[in-house]
């Protein structure tokens, strides 16, 4: 059997942590059920040779887009169903993936997986379409159940930290590294340049802003999908904690010896960011890349969206969701506009060229050079 791909393993059960360590040419070894589109694009950006997943990359439960993105980008994706095998692979191990899904670890047969192909994905999509109505019903029931426990988000029964950054009467842009976040930030660059909103990065959303040369004013979240560079960019840091005292990102911030504040609230970090902006007196909140629909939440492993529903119910009158704004209007220069611009520029250039001795001299040199090229001299 011919060798398909060979590379060094980088192993992590959390894809968002693996992405921070993987290098071009590596084979990503992960445990990620129903790979989401954002994770897929990040793996592609890291230029991995292939992906071995010890969970179903597409289970057929819902229409997750990640596997299709990876396969369309030419990435080798192998699903392995045997439990516990991921624990036997170490960073730096040499892995060979053969074209029948056979995996060779350090020169010896390890296991056999399923190569995820376009045909396989298509069959799972058909399965997901049949499950769609059932998943909607289950998701709605879970959301209503969670609402009972998270209704304090409406009553503001939580402490909002006092920030150094002044948000009062200002526009605030909350950036999450969600679907199409790059295209949406790009579409909003003119708005950012002109209005200069306060920029809040939610975890990896801070890195998203830095990609565009924008420095976040505030970073909020569990600090599990942001780079060290992002955390050290000088932004004000607010660690997301929960009412039971848990603050998953606190230890990392302390290890980096960074100043921080804590905000304890149920829900997601992006919910917390919206509440922070709202209670800090923002005049308008623009949300970019946030998770707002059932597929978004299922891809993130959440079974309901109670906190997001309640938070948007509370802040909705000053909230603009910019998700997909790049598709709203795409400006293209029309040919007649371009012709008019060139015509308008022609006459000033003509006047300058006839009145400036230096420009006249350069034009003569250019004409001589052209004549030499075509053999007229």
TrEMBL record:
Keywords: ATP-binding, Kinase, Membrane, Nucleotide-binding, Transferase, Transmembrane, Transmembrane helix. InterPro entries: Put_SteA-like (IPR047795), SteA-like_C (IPR022215), TPK_catalytic (IPR007371), TPK_catalytic_sf (IPR036759). Residues 323-374 form the SteA-like C-terminal domain. GO terms for molecular function: ATP binding; kinase activity; thiamine diphosphokinase activity. It holds the Pfam family TPK_catalytic. GO terms for biological process: thiamine diphosphate biosynthetic process. It comes from the Bacteria. Residues 197-231 form the Thiamin pyrophosphokinase catalytic domain. The chain crosses the membrane at residues 337-363. This is Uncharacterized membrane-anchored protein. The lineage of its organism: Bacteria, Bacillati, Bacillota, Clostridia, Thermosediminibacterales.
